[in-house]
């Protein structure tokens, strides 16, 4: 299904906006601009048309004009009146810029100068015109010709004066002149929407923010293709229109991403499937404010979480990721949508992992992925629905990886002894001597009642003895404590999910937020 509509293309340099038409298909977004085309006859000069108008006793030249050099735009035809001189030629259109009047160049003339010339040009006026494809929106030109009744570019009037030349000028001839009419072999012209730019949506990305900043564009966004080609800033007349187009384009991009994932998964083993991938913005810490955020492409595949600067297109591209993390050792956390309850996993209650970020930025739909050695990546997406998908996908990818792996063992130490600490999906926690392999202690997941750590290397795990009901404290020291805590979190969460999947769904912050909206 194709979606079409009128929007504005905003030029940040000139600060002008131009009327465009958008055409959205499943795979491509096309931008169209209006132009006048020759549909029959021989057209010697495709760009310029020269037309002779015969001034009529009633209706004059049958047109109105707007603009002028004082507004930094050419004088353009703003209205063409039905059944009058200008319309009868079949060669003039609303949006035509007047280049010459009776051989006099008026490209740099003011509005009043052109009005004066046209009014005093006699009964036959020869004008040369060229269609102004990028007419600034402040001219408020109607998008269709003829007649002012079809003005749907905007409900407001233009700040520029609209001079009507449908009144008589200084005519010397009192007899009614023959009407202006096209000659049989003269070329015929039509105003049409022509394709000017096509942006493929596969792996495309959308941004509602001014580049690198937290400043949200008002009712506007840009679409960037995989090769970097941009639509420019697409501006909409209402917030509703902007939201509808944003949703429609995001949906099409997501559908194409899904197709790409299915294609990629045909070449991958069942244990190395892509669960989800897509564009996000990453907040860059400690950089100058003009580059606060940067586009990144994330993927959840097999046992790993990947961060790319550009999407992986071939199987070889997966090795060139900027960062690759083991899924068992990362922690997904939503920001900006905090509700009364905690994050999506019951495991937080056990582990007390609360590393809240400084949330001074203005963007909603943010999440962080905490990784080893206490480091984090902070991301933002454009829509709440995307946030919900990332939340669900991280859960699924982590749970699958835990079930596939079954167990993870880390080297640790306590009081000078080198030990091994194993987290096992079936057995829970086991600690044994690395040399003798003798088991020192073993507890089920359900026996873990709490934990505390020094934020560096040491952790205290509090277990309840099933027989005595007493709490036993086990202290261990790890090289990368964060990775171990995340791994415990992942295993407990996966265990809870396998026993009570409804509980996990009930913890979804992003989805609760979406339903409440």
UniProtKB/TrEMBL annotation:
One Gene Ontology molecular-function label: actin binding
Residue span of region Disordered: 142-186
Cellular localization per UniProt: Cytoplasm, Cytoskeleton
Matching Pfam families: PDZ, Syntrophin_4th
Chain intervals with Low complexity compositional bias: 142-160
A Gene Ontology term for the protein's cellular component: syntrophin complex
Stretches assigned to the PDZ domain: 50-133
The keyword Cytoplasm appears for this protein: yes
Keyword terms, alphabetized: Actin-binding, Cytoplasm, Cytoskeleton
Family to which this protein belongs: Belongs to the syntrophin family.
Name this protein carries in UniProt: SNTG2 protein
Gene: Sntg2
